[in-house]
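S.,

Sequence below, as promised.
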Amino acid sequence: MRLTVFDPELNFECHSCGNCCTRPWRIVVEDEKVEAIREFDWAAKYPQLARVQLVDSDEVTGATQYVLAKAEDGACVFFNRANNRCIIHSELGADAKPHICGKYPYGVSNAPDADRVFVRFSCPSVQAGRGPTLDKQKDAIEKILKPTAGWEGNYVQLTHGHDICVESCGLLCDRLAELFDGKNNGDLWERFAGAIELVNAAGKCEGGQLDRSLRDSGFGRVEGGTVITGYASPRQSPLTPRMLLGITLWNDFFPADSLGRKVGFRKRISMIMKLLQIVQMRSTYASRFLGMNVPLARLGAGALAAPLPQASSDLLRRWIRSRIIARSFAISGLTFTAGTHELVLDFNAVLFLARSRAAGTNAPPTEAMYAEALSIIESRVTAQRRPYRALFPAWTLGALDSPDAARLSLRLFHPDAPVPKEATAAQTATV
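The prediction came back faster than expected:
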């Protein structure tokens, strides 16, 4: 039996908020559960389900699957708005629900050293740290989650052409997790800067020296720390961080009626145009995730670029640490270096959405805005396949694997930025 590791600092207990039941997710139903759902007389007790298509056949993956039908607002048709409960669960029991519903928000990653159990921060209860820790729910969780197939091979790709053993990968992940520990000081940008330097130093280690180096607390540290500053505005940054941010947000470009399906030529051209909007950071961008138009040119100015509220900083720190503990960034098919850069990009995507939401308020993003942004990124970006190999793959994969490019990405939304030239000119004209 493969070792199962539970993150001891993560908590969860369902509080029936209904958040997961109202998301526009495809909920695949196992074939053996479809018949029971179809045969039950739902309309007798729930008039709102009369003459409603409850289960749809779907061929998104090429094979016929069954998915739970959705209401017009994207909520599951079996979501009982009166008590925020699942109607299938109430009438047929927990085992009758699709497996994907029963296991949420728990997840298990096929890490090199073990099956690592985590929880998804798209759930409000996870974000709030409600409930017992995961290690205290071990027996219940193991009944829900299926074990992985196990890690193939004895090595992990640190950079292109440089493999490290599973033990070294574990030591490196432990060092990264320490950087995002609540006991350590430094804002998130400083912690990420330390992570980039540590991984970069590991990539330069000669064979046989890495394990010993990683056990040295001073290894990978820059004397005096790494100074990170922002840009006067995001559009004054180099092309690389803006392009990578756009690729990270690719799922936001899908037309509402096309997500999860093949996209035609015209719609794909429309998606490329939205990518270019993000890259240019000038025009108004229609975000499907947020359901609003975003004034891109304003996202790096004034109050929107204020430092993170302490509660939001701690929330994002716990989220990043949990991904490091789960090793999910190191097993995504990318190199370890590229996976670390991907963490920075996802962090930037959260900041982008939070600032976008606040753009019309003339005030800094609130804790609620950062929580919403994190929930969106966890459910619609990090849980989906990234298009790195579909969009300019040679350039994209090269940039992801570059520590220098990672440092540029880290600066994109840093709050300590010089005053934009436009603002300086406006102030001078006023005087």
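The chain is about 40% helix and 10% strand.

Coffee later?
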